[in-house]
Amino acid sequence: MDRYCVFGNPIAHSKSPEIHAAFAAQTGQELTYEKRLAPVDGFAAAVQAFIAEGGLGANVTVPFKLDAVKVAQALTIRARAAGAVNTLHFTEDGIVGDNTDGAGLVADIVGNAGVPITGKRVLLLGAGGAARGVVLPILEHRPAQLVIANRTVATAEALAEQFAALGGEGVVSACGYGDIEGAFDIVINATSASLSAELPPVSPSVFAPGALALDMMYGASPTVFLQFAGQHGARLRDGLGMLVEQAAEAFSLWRGVHPATAGVLQSLRAKL
User: Fold this and answer.
1) Residue ranges making up the domain that contains 157
2) Where is the SDH C-terminal domain (predicted)?
């Protein structure tokens, strides 16, 4: 059996084995997929051990997405742009690092939520690793504007500057939370505020009528951010769809077939 895994610390909560088992059953692929707890200071050794056992690929979650960049011998364009790796492919030529997070987010927004990004105003809250991974895939859909807002403005400005040429003149910009101007069609919370039940300090005016508000976090009940967005007329979406879609991207990279995601997402949602 072909072997795959997900590395993390902690890792017990991961839904990835369930998702990939469903993909394998659906596509007729024979493989096993397991959770692997890697020591915080022993990620590279854990990867090499898995390769020695015959592993063909791995997903990477917190806190190893930057370590995975160093382990990879080649990076895809989107992994290089993100500065982080969430998918490793062990090939005859070496270890390839990819980042499927942003593609997963965009697939969930456009495909599952049915909201086009092209020509829309998009607000991205946060400028850390989660935000960095989604800028390129968003810009590939040609939004009218992408504003990156962050508590530390310099971090947001550096991120905006990195992608400015790709977006075209005036498309990508950065600011502090208090300086956000106008209303947006899509508002994405890429901060970790939801983990501590906190709200990014944004005005209700950021939500255009019928805007899509998406939080990368997910759970049985809406995050504080989604509750806030819902009180101001936004359509709500959590990060579960992004999780399933980024997994589908990784599965496609490894197996050469792209699984259908709707049924898997529905099944996971029912279990929350």
Assistant:
1) 102-237
2) 239-269
